[in-house]
Each structure stands twice: as C-alpha cells, then as structure tokens.
Request: fold
Amino acid sequence: MTRVPIVHGVFGNGPFAEIGEPGLAVVDDRSRMVAVGGDLGSVQWSGGATADSGWTGHRIGVYEQDSLRCRNLVRSWYPVRSLAFHPVLPLLAVGTGSYDGGYSFEGELLLIHLDTGNAVSALQHRREVLSVEWRSETALRLVLAPCDDWDNPHAHEQGHATVVTRADWGAVGRGAIGSEELAAPVEPAVRPDRRAQARRLLTNLATADGRQWSLRRRVWAVEGMQDGRVLAALDGVLAESWLPSGDRPWAVEDEEGGRQLVLSSDGTSVWANAERRGRRKRRGWEVSAPRLARIAVDTGQVRETLSPGVSGVLVAGGRGTILRPLDSRRKRPHRLMMFDLDGPVDGPEVGHFDAFNHPFAVRRAGRPYVLVGIDPDEPHKDKWVSAPGADGTLRRLFPHSWVPEEHHFGGPAVEIGQSLVYAGAVHDGHGLQPGGAYVVRRSLNGAVQWQYRTDHPATALDTDGDAVYVADNSGALTALDADNGSVRWHIELEVDGAPTTALSLAVAPQGHLLVGTVDGRILECEVRR
Reply:
C-alpha cells in the first residue's frame, strides 16, 4: 500500500515564509503575537493562466513573537488594509479590500479567532475596510471606503469613519454588522503604504531570533538531478541550485524570475526561461528583452543566451527543445524555434498562443507536443494535440477536448508510454463550475482511458509510472493510479502545520517527490511504498 507523502526536507525555508510579500505587520505586546498581511501573488504567467481560477494569494499570518512559529494562516479574497489585536480576547480584527478597477470598493471585516484559527466575515455586505482600531473591549472603530466612485472623483481619497459596539466580539457571527451601523459622513482618509515598514519589522524580528528574513515567492519550476541536487526557478531568480546538504551553491538573478526549466540533452546544463511583463515607466509601458539562457548545472555559469526577439514558452520533448512564441501582435503565423546544443533552427508554423487555451507543458515527453487551433482566425477553438513530424510539419494527433460540446483550456501534462495524461478545465461563462477541472489519460489515437474530475484546476503534475501526482490551487496534492485513475491518496499540503500550495512538482530520479510552493519553498516528500 502506498503511503501518503511525508515532508522530510525543505529548501529555501525561512521565517514568515507563509505570507509572501508583506504589506503590513503589527506586534501585540500583551499576547506576544505578530500579525502580518501579505501576498503570495497569482498563479499565472504569460505561458499559463488556467490555474488562477478561484485563486487568491492574499494571506493573514499570526506568529509567536518568541519563536516566529506560524500559529494561524488565513486566506483573504482581498488585500489586507489594517490589523488590530483585541485588547483582551484572542481575536484579531482585519480590514481588507480593494477597488475593482471600474466601479466598486469591495472588501471584508474579518474576525480571526486566534485560539481556533476560524475566521468570520462580519459585514452583511462587502465593503473595503481601510482601517480597524479597538477603542475598548466593546468598541471597534472602522474606516470604510465609499461604496463606489460613481459621480465622485474624490472617492479614492475619502472614507466613512464609524464605531461599532458589541458586548462580546467573540460571539459576532457572519454578516452580523449591517449597513445601517456603518452609515457615517464622508471625510478625508489616507491610504498609507506600509510595505517598507513591514519589511523592516520582519527583518528585525528575524534578527532578534538569530535568523534572516528575505522574500521568496512562487517556485514555478523544480527539477531533480541524478546526484541529488535540486534545480528551481522562482520569482526574482532565473535558476538556482540546492545541494542535498541544504546549501545553495549558486543562483542566477533576474528582474522577473524564471518560469520554466528544461534540461539539455547532455544533462550538464539547463535551459531557463524568464517571464517578461510590461512595467509602467515615465514614457509609458516598457517590456524588457526576452531572456532564454542555458546555465551550467554544476557552476551556475550562463553558457549562452538566445535572443529570439519575442518571449516564448518552452516545449520539451526527445533530445530537443522548442520555443513557441507568445507575441500576439503579429498577424502572420509564428514558427516554432527548435534548439538544443547546436543553435536554433526554424521549425514548422504554429498558430497564435494564449495563456488560457494553449498551455501544454508535457513532462517526460519523447517528442514535443503543442496545442494548435484549426482555424487561424480563431485559434482558441477546436484545438488539437499536435506534434512536429519528420517532414517538418505539424501532425494532428487528436482533439484536445474529447467532449465535442465542451471548450477545454490547456494545462500541465505528462507522457506515459503511448499515452498522455493532462490536466485542464472546462470553460463556462459563469466561471469554473464544480467538477469543471479534470485530469485525463488518453492514448495517442485519442481514446480516453480514464478521467478524474475535481473542483480545482491543477497547477502541476508528474508521474513515476505507477502513480500520477497532481497538485491543484486549493493546496491539495492527489495521487491517482496511473492505470485506472482511481484516487490512492489525497492530502492538504502543509509545512510545519501551516497550509501551503504547490505550484510545481517533479518526481526526482531517486523516487521522492519535489514540490515547489507558492511561498518560495521546495519540499522533498517521501512517497515510496
């Protein structure tokens, strides 16, 4: 019987890892607790966006000041604006919210019970809560943003201040505070940026504990080597290497960070693909030049850098690698760029790529696979799983959707024998529906061998040939039987008792499972029989 995985090693660990980039932090001298509001970021990039459905990276972490151990970790649908410990009760008031970009200011007042970790959303209607402050054991002062900015150009600099009283705030239930209690005249309201202050506080707390705090987020790719080393790509780092001892001998920094790693055919170097997003500059939006580098595995030296002209997504398979362009501005078809150690050459033409429909990163592939739409004018429709043929053209293998009336988005995949196991999601105009995410195994003629339906889109998957390991954006990790798709085990991923979410995973040559998390850590999990 296969055991559930046990985390027996963590690379890149550190204090306050669970909350990502801190937005604000407060210390409560009475309870000797620290509350931090942070953001792990989204789980999409230019080469893949399907896994972002239903995801929120906003977190509230409560830590013991003496040990920096995470006592509570709560997800929030909105950015954290304010934090306040109750003067007597084990209770944390949290104001959250944001502008929706076009009309409304939405958010919540969360009451986190520190003894149980339960969080109560106390407002009857969603409102952005800019500030929370306990005036006494029974009185909580709130500053709320206006409901919207309709006919009010000053709404972004205004707020409504009110005091809500309750005899016992620990007994306040969901939606217990109605709109009538929040009515108050409008007044100027500042929205301070507390990020620098939060960073200083976390740095000082870690130093006082004899440790070092540094920001790590989103391990997008992880690979295991024969000698036990682990390679990873993450925010701000094109690629890095970890030794079994836990030392990090090298890291190649990047302004955005690496999103993909593909080992070269000789095994001594790895191709690393960087993200490139637009940044607002004085003269408008600017995008840095694409970065695709081959890095020596043993030293971290950049051996060569390709300049493809446009950003792309790496497609691995066999002894070569393909770069599929992401530039959507060109009207004419793109060509795949095929390369390894001998330099790039043009491959067959391929249609437009978008981050929802066409991601199809196939691990352990004997040849490259891509998703291509039949109609060049509507390439997101009628997608086929295709592969370059010996004659230099793309050969259609089978339709990506095995249900004709359903439109399927792309996702991670792995090749097993003469079949592909891949994850995806079914498009619905109202968003992802229950059971709308899937993992399916299909033979190369398109026959469905099994399918597994779930409510949460996959972030990554891999196989050891016996089981298929699937991570999804809820924080779950599931092992499916490779032969019939039945569930062998299903767990909620945790590190030291605090939940986390896998963004990447790989079965290492030694048989253990490597998991890259959204909070910048790399887990070694034992899953052998």
